[in-house]
Amino acid sequence: MDPSRQIQRPSIVCSILIVVALGFGCPMVGAQSLSKLRSEVRESDSEPSSDSDRSRKRRESGGNRPRHEKYGSSNSSKSQFGPSQFGSNLDDDCAAEQLAGYAFLAGVTSPIWVPRLAVQDEGLDAAFPRYPYHPSGNGALLFDSELPGAHDALMVLQGDYGTDFDALQSGHVRLFGEIWSRFGFDTEAYFRKEKLSIGDDHLSNGDFNLTYRFAQSPNWQFRAGLGVNWLADSIGRDAGINTTYGCEWFPTDPIVVSNMIDWGRLGKSGLFHYRGTVGVTRKGWGIFTGYDYLNVGDSKIQSWINGIEYRF
Q1: How is the chain split into domains, by residue range?
Q2: pLDDT recorded at residue 142
Q3: Nearest to 203 by CA among 294, 287, 272
Q4: pTM of the predicted model, to two decimals?
């Protein structure tokens, strides 16, 4: 048996357990979930403060105190610090602030540069095999466009069914496309239904994003993008900005592990969306199972999902 496969199998098992734990470790939502989602998207913002309120807050924070009371007199500063000592302290403060700024920037951008280092991305363009684990390669990307079955573009069509094991059900479709230059698009739509005592409640939501594959190897692909979220029902339509971040892992034939995060706004509230799946693929066709979580304001919708996909 191939030793590399023996090493990879624990990682695959861990990925499956993580998805299952996320999906079943949290309580499912109760009734009126779609109504709650709708109200979070469309509720009005709090009223802005009046001029008198702003003046009162300014007085309480010391906005009307004399200048010498707020900052101290110049004479007292001079008596405590000499010119050379003041300059030394200023240099130390500037150096500390600069170091903190570099650390903050490194932390904020780590979701981009850490994967690039981890997969040893050399900035090359890549082609796509006819399907993952094609005999011409060992994953889902080819770095030689002359290999048999190499394509300049990829399309992925997915459809799945989700349930919270209570009153909520959803149908989901996703279309993802990408070209050799790493640019692509990712769009999806959820068609949700909730059974209530007075009848069924329906609404749809989804997003559309332009994406870029910023880190890649035959077995790993990381993507980020920017787009819009949307929600529609019989009452009206709402939208908001969206950022997306995701990765696909092809550890060994025929396994595919996928994780995706959306973070942005929808109507009047903030939005967070996570979707994680584990599946198998064979000559372009695949089946998968996983967990889907949507948080808009105080509204939370969780689903166990099962679906099918086709890559071409």
Answers
A1: 122-311
A2: 94
A3: 294
A4: 0.75
